[in-house]
């Protein structure tokens, strides 16, 4: 009986692989890739196109909220998207994703154990790991009094007089609200209107001191000196530090958000077979490492031996062990909490 079951299992797996191959063979050689802005090296796309013959068109977005809204509206025709773990359950529950069964892809064997069976997608039925990182803030130590800021969100939300007007916040609602929540000591997914009121008041008080809200060109804004301090991702900060070595990254003691981004395939994907080819290709260690070396974020693939040494010596990438207790994995909030966040952001930006 066991042998018979095994034969059926092997036959079923072979049939599914054959079906996927046929589907991919019948599709036009093209792929529409919707990713965070500045979050994939274009030269690697050229390598993928050369090796597979699949032409890639890449478009960018600036927040999970933008991605979710586009998919919910039903007008998106993308093959591969890059949602953070904090919206994965919503995408799955709203039937916005196709099942891709990542463990059945040959290169899933290279996925690190910690990324194989996440709570937000048990068994990796709908996703594959891409990159992970943190959202703290960065500053130019050559342009602040005394050359050093305290490792607290207070420096960002209540900037010193010398820095006011030279500070930027991300234009990403969840990132800004999460940071404010950590600073105030409230749950980032609070459903309490009084907590929301405190968050809004903090952000409204900070707003006159900001030069801008922007999630684009975060590397250049710091490296060029356009701003002195910016809420920022650790990878963007590391890349800016290569251009200007006085830039520092802060892991605030009140808590720093940790995110994990993933590859997924929308329900409406026009080329799902090509999407699986791309996702499998990206789980090859040399390709995962090429992304990490280009944009300075850690990946979920067993590729550490291929990472560039220049990233390993930066605190923004190689976080000091004593800061581990400050990490706060981003949560997936309830609809009620999201409605509160939407109201906070609308009031703030209105």
Give descriptors for this structure.
single chain; 350 residues; alpha/beta; D-Maltodextrin-Binding Protein, domain 2; 2 domains; 8-stranded mixed beta sheet; 3-stranded parallel beta sheet; 11 strands; 40% helix; disordered N terminus
Structural overview:
This protein has 350 residues and is of the alpha/beta class. The chain folds into two domains: 2-131 and 261-310, Periplasmic binding protein-like II (D-Maltodextrin-Binding Protein, domain 2); 133-258 and 320-349, Periplasmic binding protein-like II (D-Maltodextrin-Binding Protein, domain 2). 40% of the residues lie in helices and 17% in strands. It is built from 13 helices and eleven strands. It has helices at 2-26, 42-52, 64-73, 88-93, 154-157, 173-184, 193-206, 218-223, 234-243, 272-282, 285-295, 309-312, 335-349; strands spanning 30-36, 55-61, 80-81, 128-140, 167-169, 210-213, 229-233, 247-250, 256-263, 298-299, 327-329. The strands form two sheets. Strands 4, 5, 6, 7, 8, 9, 10 and 11 form an eight-stranded mixed sheet that branches. Strands 2-1-3 form a three-stranded parallel sheet. The longest helix has 25 residues, at 2-26. It is globular and about 60 Å long. The termini are far apart. The relative contact order is 0.19. Residues 1-23 have low confidence and may be disordered.
Which helices and strands occur, and which strands form pairs?
Elements: H1 2-26, E1 30-36, H2 42-52, E2 55-61, H3 64-73, E3 80-81, H4 88-93, E4 128-140, H5 154-157, E5 167-169, H6 173-184, H7 193-206, E6 210-213, H8 218-223, E7 229-233, H9 234-243, E8 247-250, E9 256-263, H10 272-282, H11 285-295, E10 298-299, H12 309-312, E11 327-329, H13 335-349
């Amino acid at each position: 009986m066991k042998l018979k079951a095994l034969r059926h299992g092997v036959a079923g797996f072979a049939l599914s692989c054959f079906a996927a191959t046929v589907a991919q063979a019948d599709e036009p050689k093209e792929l529409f890739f919707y990713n965070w802005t500045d979050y994939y090296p274009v030269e690697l796309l050229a390598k993928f196109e050369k090796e597979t013959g699949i032409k890639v068109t890449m478009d960018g977005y600036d927040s999970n909220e933008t991605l979710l809204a586009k998919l919910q509206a039903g007008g998106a025709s993308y093959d591969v998207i890059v949602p953070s773990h904090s919206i994965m359950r919503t995408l799955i529950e709203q039937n916005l994703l196709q099942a891709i069964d990542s463990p059945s892809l040959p290169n899933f064997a290279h996925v690190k154990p910690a990324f194989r069976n996440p709570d937000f997608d048990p068994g990796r039925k709908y996703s594959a790991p891409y990159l992970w990182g943190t959202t703290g803030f960065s500053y130019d130590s050559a342009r602040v009094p005394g050359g050093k800021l305290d490792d607290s969100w207070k420096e960002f939300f209540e900037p010193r007089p010398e820095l006011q007007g030279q500070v930027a916040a991300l234009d990403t609602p969840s990132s800004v609200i999460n940071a404010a929540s950590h600073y105030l000591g409230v749950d980032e997914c609070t459903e309490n209107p009084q907590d929301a009121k405190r968050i809004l008041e903090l952000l409204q008080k900070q707003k006159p001191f900001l030069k801008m809200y922007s999630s684009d060109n975060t590397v250049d804004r710091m490296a060029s000196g356009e701003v002195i301090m910016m809420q920022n991702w650790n990878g963007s900060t590391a890349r800016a530090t290569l251009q200007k070595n006085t830039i520092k990254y802060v892991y605030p003691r009140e808590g720093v958000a940790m995110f994990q981004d993933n590859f997924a395939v929308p329900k409406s994907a026009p080329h799902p077979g090509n999407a699986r080819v791309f996702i499998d290709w990206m789980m090859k260690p040399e390709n995962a490492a090429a992304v990490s070396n280009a944009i300075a974020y850690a990946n979920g693939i067993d590729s550490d031996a291929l990472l560039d040494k220049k990233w390993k010596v930066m605190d923004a990438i190689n976080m000091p062990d004593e800061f581990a207790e400050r990490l706060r994995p981003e949560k997936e909030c309830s609809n009620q909490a999201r409605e509160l966040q939407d109201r906070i952001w609308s009031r703030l930006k209105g």
